[in-house]
């Protein structure tokens, strides 16, 4: 037994005794995702602990002190400098230690636990007209504890500055398990019994400051964004010995913050956003000093690569409102009166236009455009990581800052340095604060590339110091820049940093090798050279195939958001890192690496992590780097079960297209059988939940009747692909689609008896899926170039993406290029001037996740509004059924938990006396709606049924539909 194992067992035993009920996880499936943050580093921890209280943190720190195990505190895990990974115990404070304890609107303060998500605090304080000033782009998943650890700033830092400026007090636990409160006057014990120990600690700090007054006064606090090192200047006598602010930015290396009292600011009554175009980022930086004279709230910059990637990933309409240019600035002004703010914005635009550097500019009046533009900026780190051309870029020098008036000169010299080293950088950041985020195409997988990166980073450090700047402007030093602190600071100040840490952490157990006694900047790098894996999917957009695909995840953590977009429904339901897109991707990276997870495709840890993935594909659109976990899961399941017995549902649900085709010949007796006791027995035998009603199968005659009554007699301009779900369960929809297409000037012919292969893909039976798809492609690729319209969005998405990426043939790509959903066909192909029958004013909409992810810019919500529906109340999120997922017995509860997030509240809000029209094109979505609200008479219509010219009245299908 190793010393490490012995220490871990001793730790677990101690915690069982002192903190009963505390979750301690040690297996690879749990620790693997925590080996990474959003940086270049990989440091597998020995255990992950999920404290629920400050007392739990005390118990962990005391046990770790006694066993000599290091501790790293972690919030959202979005750190870009390697601040949130460590070799011992990782404390995940975000899971349970996340309560808002108090909001005082009069004093404008809030007391929050360290794991509170920034957006949760902002939502709670918004009720009082208040907010927390600093707003990092990761606001939807970063925690207040993490912001305190890094001294984070954000997009509006020119107005609100750094987190440290908004901290009244910190509730901390020291390395030896003592609870204390750090405030603006010093350090105070929580337990009076600890008074002497806390007093000695404070006295040691005061003595340290007194011995180092000169370097602290002359080297620290020189520019607004100087985050590097420890901010000891807050402890100077003239600053009042502000211990709270001094501990902000220490990156968990001196104490663990469990709660904080923060200062709030009033929300702006009015604001305006100005977008400015430039030929390059240097020209943009030249205008910053003039812009700052107008007292903006935000001055944000970015270059063209980020915008191009956003448009490629989410469609050309995902970025609107930008003037011509190759670089842009966002300038936000605020005030008490909208007219006054708008006037100031127009005046500023005139001034900047007269200066002659801009290529264009405009005041963005549309709220939707403003949201779109801010999302591009907020997703900068992810979008820059994997660009539209497939290139990869990495952090490491992503946070340097200079005084704003020096920014243009610094950027000019920095671009020359990049060119001298043959490197390319994608730039964005807080230009108004002089802070530049840049991701660089380092080669971090080879010894040669790592040596080159090391050389560049040392020269970059010298360059920013020569411009009077700082290594870090808000991300902290972490493992990426700790080594470089000696370039920036004197030996005496470096020694003072070490002494400060030693006062708080004499054993060096808190986040070791960060800031003080740092690890080499090229130690523990995650990238490594790999052997490509043989796969079924071709992964055409990833140079290293499957390994390159899972490497897309760089840890920015948008999948951990509780709202906005659809990703990631399983994480939103469980709150577990292992159930997030990021957690799964990181564990797949470990599988490819073969160290922590050693059994490759047969790994039970990876299988379990993928188990609650709904294969909704939302991540392929919402994730800034385009992770497609549904495809990775399908590939994994194919190999994991190859040559082995599969879960029963893989047979009963995976082969549904075949069995439903057979049942169609005897639908009536089979339906009667399934409604009885034998139906429940068959469901159990097939691994299907008995808590849902199995949908009734349609007869073959029903489809023929539906299509016969829909014939228009006009020459066909489109092909209606009758998918397996429409054929088996709702053939009337095929008739409605046919009539709507004819009405829109797109009469169709039909293709029946084919399948997209989706159910075999989602259950990982890729060999069968390939044969099914090949047959379909052979039939459709017959020289016909007419658009193929598919009623079922999931089948359309499979034909559009899965078929070409699994078959990898020109024929498959030709077929995919012709595929449209009904929404897409009506948006792009309907004859000019087409108007549907009268529509209701209000519609509740559930968009299928595959349509949301796979058909960019062709959204049912937008079509309904364009056609005259006044109010579209969309349930933004997955319905929870997700094909086979919600029918599988072991997934029923998660399926319902996902439905509770968005869909069920919309259905519950429907007034039974005035029922709304509910639209859901996906068969899964409609089935879930029936399960949730069918007993109240609520039934989901397909869009085609809503638009059907043969409907008896708006919103209801007619007798012929």
Give an overview of the whole structure.
Strands 5-6-11-8-9-10 form a 6-stranded antiparallel sheet. A 6-stranded antiparallel sheet has the order 16-13-15-14-17-18, with helices on both faces. Strands 1-2-4-3 form a 4-stranded mixed sheet, with helices on one face. The radius of gyration is 29 Å and the shape is globular. 56% of the residues are buried. α1 packs antiparallel against α3, α23 runs antiparallel to α24 and α35 crosses α36. The chain is 42% helix and 13% strand. It is α/β, with parallel strands linked by helices. It starts with a helix and ends in a 14-residue tail after the last helix.
For the record, give the distance between the C-alpha atoms at the N and C termini, rounded to a whole number: 71 Å
Shape: globular
How large a portion of the residues is in β-strands, by DSSP E? 5-15%
Number of extended strands: 26
Structural class: alpha/beta
Question: pLDDT below 50 for ≥5 consecutive residues: which ranges?
Answer: 954-961
Number of H/I helices: 44
Layout of secondary structure:
Blueprint: H1 3-18, E1 23-25, H2 28-31, E2 47-50, H3 54-67, E3 71-74, E4 89-92, E5 100-104, E6 109-113, H4 118-126, E7 130-131, H5 144-150, H6 157-160, E8 167-173, E9 179-183, E10 186-189, H7 195-211, H8 213-219, H9 243-247, E11 256-263, E12 265-266, E13 270-278, H10 281-286, H11 288-292, E14 298-303, H12 304-314, E15 327-335, H13 338-355, E16 360-364, H14 367-378, H15 380-385, H16 407-420, E17 425-430, E18 435-440, H17 447-466, H18 478-481, H19 485-488, H20 491-504, H21 545-550, H22 569-574, H23 581-593, H24 604-611, H25 619-622, H26 629-640, H27 648-652, H28 656-663, H29 667-675, H30 677-685, H31 700-710, E19 718-721, H32 724-729, H33 731-743, E20 748-751, H34 758-762, H35 766-780, E21 788-790, H36 793-807, H37 810-818, E22 819-821, H38 822-828, E23 842-845, H39 849-854, H40 860-866, E24 871-874, H41 892-899, H42 903-908, E25 917-919, H43 923-933, E26 940-941, H44 943-947
Helix pairs in contact: 1-3, 7-20, 16-17, 23-24, 31-33, 35-36, 36-37
